[in-house]
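From the methods appendix. Each design record in this collection lists the tokenized structure first, followed by the designed amino acid sequence. Records were kept in a plain field format so they could be parsed without special tools. The example shown here is representative of the layout used throughout.

RECORD:
FOLD TOKENS (216 positions):
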């Protein structure tokens, strides 16, 4: 069953770090309460920007060219959103932006994958199972932070080495409030949950290969 989602595009100019009276044009992509900005190729004098209409004022050749470009960007972004929605009812502004640039899965990261899973499976899994997935998420993000010095990781870069590294991390892990390392069974269950989520990414065509292909 599809859920309703609100999608909108707006244009604005930023004058940050500019002292010459000009501003750079941006597109803002909003899906539900989430949003992201897309830097466009034009910088214009602030006095010719119509804030209410989100267009360039006047009928000069440059004004017509920029306004035509903005309409094209708006149309293409709406098309990107529709294409993503045709595959999944969970779409983020970052996914629309990535699709617009033809990158798709390369910009989708672990956190987004978890969000997608939790939204889609909240009615199919019991609370205890969802809690296990949240625990796995915490372990995975902790591993990414320690191993890659980052708070997130692109799913397009998931590979055999990443999985082996995560499994090694789990086997050395002391779960919170426990004095013993995570059991072998516990570690493998977390790996199985990660495998399920990478299959979801494959089904959504966010990645083009199975990172578990070399794993037993």
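DESIGN:
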């Amino acid at each position: 069953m599809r859920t309703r989602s609100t999608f909108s595009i707006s244009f604005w100019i930023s004058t940050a770090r500019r002292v010459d009276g000009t501003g750079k044009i941006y597109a803002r992509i909003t899906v539900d309460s989430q949003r992201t900005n897309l830097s466009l190729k034009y910088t214009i004098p602030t006095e010719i920007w119509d804030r209410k209409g989100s267009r360039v004022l006047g009928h000069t050749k440059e004004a017509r060219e920029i306004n035509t470009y903005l309409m094209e960007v708006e149309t293409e972004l709406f098309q990107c959103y529709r294409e993503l929605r045709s595959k999944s009812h969970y779409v983020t502004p970052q996914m629309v932006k990535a699709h617009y640039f033809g990158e798709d899965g390369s910009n989708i990261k672990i956190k987004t994958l978890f969000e997608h899973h939790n939204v889609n499976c909240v009615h199919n899994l019991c609370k205890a199972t969802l809690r296990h997935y949240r625990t796995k998420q915490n372990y995975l993000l902790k591993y990414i932070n320690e191993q890659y010095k980052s708070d997130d990781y692109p799913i397009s870069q998931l590979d055999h080495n990443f999985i082996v590294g995560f499994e090694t991390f789990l086997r050395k892990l002391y779960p919170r409030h426990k004095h013993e390392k995570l059991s072998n069974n516990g570690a493998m269950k977390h790996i199985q949950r990660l495998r399920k989520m990478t299959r979801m990414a494959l089904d959504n065509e966010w990645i083009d290969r199975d990172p578990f292909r070399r794993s037993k």
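APPENDIX NOTE: The chain has two domains: 7-101, 110-204.
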